[in-house]
Amino acid sequence: MHPADFDPMTDLPDPSASLAMGDIVRIGEHRATATQDAIACEQAVALEYNGIAHVALLASPLHIPELALGFSYTEGIIQSPADVLDLDVEATADGLVVRLRIVNARLHALKLRRRSLAGSTSCGLCGVQSLAQIRRDLPPLTPPDQPWTIRAIAAALDQLRQRQPLHNLTGATHAAAWAEPDGRLAWTYEDVGRHNALDKLIGRLLREPVDRGRGFVVISSRASFEMVQKAQAAGIRALVAVSAPTTLAVRLAQEAPMMLAGFARDGRCTLYSRPDYLDGSRT
Q: In sequence order, which residues have a C-beta less than 8 Å from that of residue 109 and are 6 or more positions away?
């Protein structure tokens, strides 16, 4: 299946596809109650490129084509969706296997990269042999056409809480969403891994006629270095996190340059880079 042909599931799927019911015992002050509760599914997802096994992720078994496309792009394996000639997902006894067929030039680049790594993991950082390999050489981001507003950020976060059916049922997933300049959420993706949720969203953005310099991304997790780097690789100018950023994330956002906001909740946020990209007085 060519990636341009796959029919992505709605960004608000039936959550039952990624959860299971398990027997639990709830303990209170005076009683114990046996019942059942929803538990988020976590499944191994192996990515193969032209028959070469490259990485195994632990992810929610939803939106797997988007995950494979977004991961391949943000990790620099492909440079555009056109580099993927074919993409197939196979269910096995051990999990899901995604077989991607990529153009020869990108396969050659992947082989060169593999020789420089001691190993590969879902985080994209473990196994590197030097600190220089952590930071990818990415082009600087251009400023947005116009500043965003705190009202738009607040609107996006209000919607984000309502667009996480898996989290509402299990409490075990993260979300990443694309917000239009006015704060309206276009797509939201959930996953047990915060990196996976962002990769799924980026995989969707790659297939949509979206100006990634106008909108912004909101995430339900903390903002780590990897999250900022993935956003920069996708040309995203603003990353808004519900929780805190790390020092490396702040440094990378400042150098990108990208607006990085943390502790975004209740109509407020803390800006760690490019405060000039946010016009709090605009309505």
A: 76, 77
Contacts of range 235-244, beta carbons closer than 8 Å, 24 or more positions apart: 235/141, 236/212, 237/141, 237/142, 237/143, 237/144, 237/212, 237/213, 237/277, 238/144, 238/148, 238/277, 240/153, 240/156, 240/157, 240/179, 240/216, 240/264, 240/269, 242/157, 242/160, 242/218
> In the prediction, which pLDDT does 132 show?
59
92 by Cβ neighbours in 10 Å (0-12 / 13-18 / 19+) ranks as exposed
Give the C-alpha separation, 8 to 268, whole Å.
34
Please give the order of strands across the beta sheet that includes 259-265.
185-191, 174-179, 216-219, 238-241, 259-265, 268-273
Residue 48 pLDDT > 90: yes
pTM value is: 0.89
Catalytic residue among 41, 123, 126, 269: 123
Two tokens, residue 177: 């969403």
Judged against a pLDDT cut of 70, whether residue 277 lies above it is answered with yes
The model's confidence at residue 190, banded by pLDDT at 50, 70 and 90, is very high
Active site residue 123: yes
Q: What is the DSSP string of 109-147?
A: HHHHHHHTBS---TTS-TTBSSGGGTS---PPPPPPSS-
